[in-house]
UniProtKB/TrEMBL annotation:
Protein's name according to its UniProt entry: Acyl-coenzyme A oxidase
Entry annotated with the keyword ATP-binding: no
Superkingdom of origin organism: Eukaryota
Domain Acyl-CoA oxidase C-terminal: 483-665
Keyword Oxidoreductase: yes
Family to which the UniProt record says this protein belongs: Belongs to the acyl-CoA oxidase family.
Domain Acyl-coenzyme A oxidase N-terminal: start-end pairs: 21-146
UniProt cofactor(s): FAD
UniProt organism field: Bactrocera dorsalis
Residues of the Acyl-CoA oxidase C-alpha1 domain: 288-449
Chief site of localization: other
SUPFAM superfamilies linked to this entry: Acyl-CoA dehydrogenase C-terminal domain-like, Acyl-CoA dehydrogenase NM domain-like
Length: 669
């Protein structure tokens, strides 16, 4: 099957209808030109000799892994050469590769080196002393060694204080002795641990003279650098096939009396001196900082997955024609069915809203990390709360949004070659890794409770929670104007009142004699609802600020488009949380009808721009890797071409016919 060189006329027509400059939108959504240029440069170099993704789909588990390692090594080699040219010593090219969905193109089943870059190298730099960085970190940055972040165990992932891996200090030899005493203490899940890395950071309980000193991070070699065989005392391997991310090579690790020098404990914060004196970290949560970084990153990465799926569904819906709206007219593009727009457009705007929130969150991370560098730890709780709530709601919304977008593509959405399967499994994994979502919402719930107490006692509130004080001071919600400010405030007001209710329930339970932990547990449902609304109010407010500020730096047509996107996002989000809002704000039927009218109006206004908006996400065809989502819209030819590549189509008759079908059909005669 040859793929036409021309663009599908329906898609070409859609692009002509665009009312804004796609390139200007692209720069806006990528937070400026420099990241965009780098991304495009990297794509040009990295995608020049990629193998066919359809071929990858049919490989065995082992071949898939080996092929991914090959692609990963080729990509990293090119990326390092590029970095040398762009800004020697910098890391922006790595960063570009890792934070965009681009990495997933090179490694559709995930990468066994992702955790090396995201966590291992960063933890060595940020949790180690400068000497430790020179000794271990530089080799990791140069990829002379490969590592991963080994925290989760078979028995515990969430409750870190319950981890069982021990590091006992031996004063005589100035060493730690590492052990995983039980089956449940086996490390389980770390990416790349299975067969790829030769080093890692192990999170273990430190013991000095059998006294527990809390969790610490230890640099550990697990495999010989030459032979790649496991070192003595180390039991290591792959945890087996998962529902996706087949090439991430998640592994297990058992340790029996493995000795490492005292100087292998990462000692930027807590320290163990040669005589066994333990010097505490100024803030114990600093050991959790590598996780905070990844939570922030996930918001960007998952909003990218969401936008990929939205692009595939939008382009396909512009090409797919079915079911005349009026009986005597030709079949329309399915995108003209209003219910189809309702399936797709809220996902487009949600991806944009999280992208903007993710950019803001990552800036906040950088500011907090700089402050931590100057021994100012005051912003850690605020960053922790925001990272937790945005990580949880973004991964949830993207996961279920991607599934809705797949369903919006009908039968062909179910083809592996449409690529929704990979995109979904990437997205949903993030609901669990780096902190299971409910657990993260409970962290936020706890901080909301505390903040509520602070507010009642007149203490200043952290900036991203200051609205609680404002909304709590209102006797009732101000007059419903329905404008954007009002819609944002409605979400904030609902979050505030949900916090109030949770706080009251918690206090009532304490007063009835429950212990604080029991009271917290039974208030969990209300607390997690408050936490979720808090995050959604942040995303809405941030979108509102992005669109209404700096207007003079953008063209009128882009401002107009962004206003429509904001309008849809706010109306849709308020409708989605209407049950919560109606509990606290009196709305008439007229108000509700007006919201529905606005939703339908803005859907119609956005309709001509949908393909152009998705073009503006700037996904290379190889990133989308979808027969339904290609830029040229030659969908049917690509579906057919992919089918032709099925191994079952490579010979006239499969072996199972002679072996099984033929005798079976004879015997049943
Ligand atoms: C080359 C190309 C690449 C291409 C790539 C393509 C894209 C691929 C994309 C992406 C790949 C990404 C791959 C990811 C890999 C995943 C990795 C992992 O999963 S690593 C494991 C994560 N494990 C968790 O996250 C455990 C979750 N558990 C916890 O974090 C804790 O145990 C927690 C928070 C649930 C409880 O911890 P407590 O028991 O110590 O804490 P309490 O008692 O609740 O809190 C104590 C105090 O500490 C504060 N706190 C807790 N955590 C904090 C934090 N992080 N920062 C600041 N404060 C914190 C709390 O607010 C509380 O504060 P007060 O005392 O009330 O004031
Ligand atoms: C693809 C993937 C990659 C991963 N990569 C790594 C890695 O590189 N390194 C690493 O160390 N780990 C890694 N992990 C492990 C991951 O971080 C953990 O699985 C995750 O933190 C969740 O912990 P858990 O599995 O113990 O879940 P559990 O805590 O057992 O969750 C089970 C259920 O219990 C509930 N629950 C647990 N505690 C509470 C509570 N306090 N209150 C209310 N409900 C609760 C949860 O909400 C959930 O519904 C990875 C996991 C996956 C899936």
């Amino acid at each position: 099957m040859t793929i036409p060189k021309t663009v599908n006329p329906d898609l070409a027509n859609e692009r002509k209808k665009a009312t804004f400059d796609v390139e200007e939108f692209t720069a806006f959504i990528h937070d400026g030109e420099s990241f965009l240029q780098l991304k495009r440069l990297a794509e040009e170099e990295l995608f020049s000799d990629l193998p066919d993704p359809v071929e990858l789909d049919y490989l065995s588990y082992e071949d898939y892994y080996n092929r991914t390692v090959e692609q990963c090594v080729n990509a990293i080699t090119k990326v390092r050469a590029m970095q040398e040219r762009v800004n020697p010593g910098g890391l922006e090219v790595y960063h570009t590769l890792m934070t965009g969905p681009m990495g997933t193109t090179l490694m559709p089943g995930g990468t066994p080196m992702g955790v090396h870059f995201l966590m291992f190298t960063r933890a060595l730099k940020n949790q180690g002393t400068p000497e430790q960085y020179e000794k271990f970190g530089r080799r990791a940055d140069n990829c002379e060694i490969l590592g991963t972040y080994v925290q989760t165990e078979l028995g515990h992932g969430t409750y870190l204080r319950g981890l069982e891996t021990r590091a006992d200090y031996d004063r005589q030899t100035d060493e730690f002795v590492l052990n995983t005493p039980k089956l449940t203490s086996y490390k389980w899940w770390p990416g790349g641990l299975g067969n790829t890395v030769n080093h890692c950071i192990v999170v273990a309980q430190l013991y000095i003279d059998d006294e527990p000193m809390g969790l610490q991070l230890f640099f550990l070699q697990v495999r010989d650098e030459q032979t790649h065989k496991a070192l003595p005392g180390i039991d290591i391997g792959d945890i087996g096939k998962k529902i996706g991310l087949q090439a991430v090579n998640n592994g297990y690790l058992g340790l029996t009396n493995v000795r490492i020098p005292r100087t292998n404990m990462l000692m930027k914060n807590a320290k163990v001196l040669p005589d066994g004196t333990f010097v505490k970290s100024p803030v114990s949560q600093l050991a959790y900082f590598p996780m905070v970084f990844v939570r922030c990153m996930i918001v960007l990465v998952n909003s990218g997955f969401h936008a990929m799926a939205a692009t595939i569904a939008t382009r396909y819906s512009a090409v797919r024609r079915q079911s005349p709206i009026k009986p005597d007219e030709p079949e329309p593009q399915v995108l003209d069915h209003v219910t189809q727009q309702m399936k797709i457009v809220p996902e487009i705007v949600t991806a944009i809203a999280y992208r903007l929130a993710g950019v803001k969150l990552n800036k906040m991370y950088e500011e907090t990390a700089s402050a931590v560098g100057l021994s100012d730890y005051s912003r850690l709780p605020e960053l922790h709360a925001l990272a937790c709530t945005l990580k949880a709601s973004c991964t949830y919304d993207s996961t279920f949004g991607i599934e809705r977008l797949r369903l919006a593509c009908g039968g062909h959405g179910y083809l592996a070659s449409a690529n929704f399967g990979n995109i979904f499994t990437w997205a949903t994994a993030a609901c669990t890794y780096e902190g299971e979502n409910s657990v993260l919402y409970l962290q936020v719930g706890k901080i909301l409770l505390k903040t509520w107490g602070d507010m009642l006692s007149g203490k200043p509130l952290m900036p991203t929670m200051a609205y609680l004080g404002v909304c709590a001071s209102w006797h009732e919600f101000p007059e419903w104007t329905g404008d954007w400010q009002c819609l944002v405030q409605a979400l904030q007001y609902a979050a505030t009142n949900k916090t109030l209710i949770a706080s009251k329930s918690y206090t009532r339970r304490l007063e009835s004699g429950l212990s604080p932990p029991d009271a917290f547990n039974v208030t969990g449902i209300e607390l997690t609802q408050a936490a979720e609304l808090h995050g959604r109010a942040f995303v809405a407010n941030n979108f509102f600020e992005e669109v209404t500020q700096n207007r003079e730096n953008r063209s009128a047509s882009l401002n107009n488009l962004l206003e429509q996107l904001l309008e849809l996002y706010l109306v849709h989000t308020v409708q989605r949380h209407m049950a919560d809002i109606l509990r606290f704000i009196h709305l008439t039927d007229e108000h509700l009808t007006s919201l529905q009218d606005r939703l339908e109006t803005v859907l119609a206004e956005l309709r001509p721009n949908l393909v152009a908006i998705c073009d503006g996400f700037d996904f290379h065809d190889k990133v989308l890797s979808s027969v339904l989502g290609c830029y040229d819209g030659n969908v049917y030819e690509r579906i057919f071409e992919a089918a032709k590549k099925s191994p079952l189509n490579q010979r006239d008759v499969p072996a199972s016919f002679a072996q099984h079908l033929k005798p079976f059909m004879r015997s049943s005669l």
